[in-house]
Amino acid sequence: MWKWFIVPLLLTILLVPTTVLADTSAEVTITAVGYIVGAPSGLTLTYVSDYEVGISWTKGEGAENTMIRACVGRTPGSRTDGYLVYYGTGTSASDTGVSLDETATPVYYRAWSESAGGLWEEEGISSFLEGVGVTILAISIIVLGLTIAAFVFKNAPLLLAGSMGWLVFAFLMYGKVFDNEALNTAFLMFGGAMALLCLFAAIGFWTSSRRRPPPEDEQEAYRREVLRTTRRR
């Protein structure tokens, strides 16, 4: 009869879970990825002058600092793209590094928020302001008019003035108007070619005018020819 007590005892010992104590332990840190900081809002650009743009915005929720960067002709793609306009805790700034009278394409601005812990949101907010390009437009019209008038009247001094004007045009266009290297190079080459054309044409007109007798001499020669012909009759 004792076996009826031994069998249940053995089954209980085999089926009870055994706990093993380890000599070492590891710490596991779980980090939840989620909301960091809100992007700025209400980015407003105000034309102050050809050399200054006023900027205002509303700070993002939970933001400590705001960074604003700008590019000519395109939106800044990252926090290292373009040039830095502002970084700080404020809600307004001024960009005094622009030359809107020399910029024919828009100037784009983009703002990002940074938390007190140094974490950035990546979306940001962007806006743009059209370039005026008044100086370039005025110089282009004047230089083109000088060039046409110089060729029509074959005037060497006007052509020299046009040559200098095309050089100024090339200088203003190159690297200051379009954020495109190929386009800037094309304008530079065009301005340089027109400057050389006007220069060589001015030299040619001046040389030909030196060889040709003055109008007074031509009139005197014609008068003498008429008198000689009359006397022969």
Please summarize what this structure is.
Helices cover 43% and strands 20% of the residues. With 233 residues, it is of the alpha+beta class.
Describe the structure.
With 233 residues, the chain is of the alpha+beta class. It folds into 2 domains: 41-129, Immunoglobulin-like (Sandwich); 134-211. The chain is built from 5 helices and 7 strands. The protein has helices at residues 3-15, 134-153, 156-173, 181-211, 215-232; strands at 41-49, 52-58, 65-72, 83-88, 92-95, 107-114, 125-129. The strands form 2 sheets. Strands 4-3-6-7 form a 4-stranded antiparallel β-sheet, with no helix packed on it.
The number of helical segments is 5
Low-confidence stretches: 18-22
Order of helices and strands: HEEEEEEEHHHH
From the 3D structure, determine the CATH topology of the largest domain.
Immunoglobulin-like
What is Rg? 40 Å
What are the salient characteristics of this protein?
233 residues; alpha+beta; Immunoglobulin-like; 2 domains; four-stranded antiparallel sheet; three-stranded antiparallel sheet; 43% helix; rod-shaped
